Amino acid sequence: MTTRRTLLAAGAATAVAATVLAAPAEAAAVSLDAASLVSADPIAHLVRRATFGPTPESLAEARKLGAVAWLDRQLDPTKIADPVCDELMARLPLAGASIATTRSKLAKNSYDGFKQLGRAAVARAAWSNRQLFEMTVMFFANHLHVAAPSSQTWDSRADYDAQVIRKYAFGRFADMLKASMKHPAMLTFLDNRSSTKAHPNENYARELMELHTVGLVYSEQDVQAGARLLTGLTVNKTTGAYLYDGSKHVTGAVEILGFKHANATAAVGESAALAFADHLAMHPATAQRLATKLCQRFVADVAPASLVTKLAKVYLDNKTAIKPVLKALFTSPEFAAAIGQKTRTPIEDLTATIRTLGLGPEKSGLQLLDALYNGLVYAGNAPFRWAPPNGYPDVAAAWASPSGFLLRCNNHLNLAAGWYPSWFTRPADMLKSLVPTLPGTYGALVDALATRLVGTKLPAQHTAAVLSVAGKLPTSPLTASDKSLAGHAPYLIALVLDAPSFQLR
Predict the structure, then answer these.
(1) Does an H or E element contain 349, and which?
(2) pLDDT digits (tens, 9 = 90+) for 114-134
């Protein structure tokens, strides 16, 4: 009989392995080679990293087109039809609404705009065909982070997502940075809306340099000068829109990190601030920092120094354009050599599970998206919910814990069995949809499940751990008349998803 105790016992063998994936030295001590746990196929490697989880369709498309052509197609998302996601977005009209529209639809300080925005991010990750675009959007939303919910951004946060992050994710970083500098959500989140000539607020100036651009290469004098330069960038109290108020601007010459401006009158204050943003965007330290963060996102937790140098040059040579940097990253030898060097965050684990199991959205309503989003709140990784301005951590160690792993295991079993959330559109027979032809042994069944769900067979000891939940050995015979198979199937599927091989991307 399958019980929760036997399930957890079977999972223990894989749980230990999953935890040490965050610590390569410890992994070596238990003879785990992360690169051997996932498929070495370069197409599969590309699709694992450039999407929220491979599907049979995305893998087939990439193999048909070839890596470069598939990548080029993903870098041109307007030419990719996205009907499922388009229909879901129609249910979430506030997710990209303008400030004026949000104000006309919602009461002051309503959380409904935040709710729709977060659910839209989950829906796009799980079901959009424009996967690399959505991955890049999430990266820059994390980089130029404005928490949602956050105080006084009820009317502007959705517009920030649409008009700053999504508008420029495949454009130029300099343009995205300037758009964020003039957006009420950013000016509110980092306090610049309250900055005045008499009392310049240093918060935004500091984070503009430390988090958004050059990193920790500035001085306190730079922060103070930056705060003075940014005065006047504020929010219209009546409309909630961006406003440059020259009466709040501190004039006088500034020199910050090599940027010089006479800033002689309040009339030039806004243009001076935007020129400063252009200077920061093109600063070599910004190029290095963005290249490092992109490597950490898509290549390895420890960014390869050689690739960082190459990407920083591509970034500067292309005047901060983002697409050339992404193409250089995904076609680099360093990327090709990085198999097994990234683990999934909670949202990536959830969406990859949905995608590999072939689960579709509910036909109407938002109950499913509510449940998925709330589950990510419990996991500590719901979109935009990170409170500090530095965005979610993007290294395995930040997400490696027994409690976090147990949440993933529970999700895998709930989704495989169809227990919760129950509003998915599901295959009529989950096991048959994953393994159409039943093999002759239980070991071969787990091999087939792993190949379909993960892309490669599990190591022998992991296969044995999975089968222990059913009280079977790899050599145990399997026939269509096996009365225990239906009961065991959800647990076998879930335990394959619990394995370290699935935790890697």
Answers:
(1) helix 346-357
(2) 999 999 999 999 999 999 999
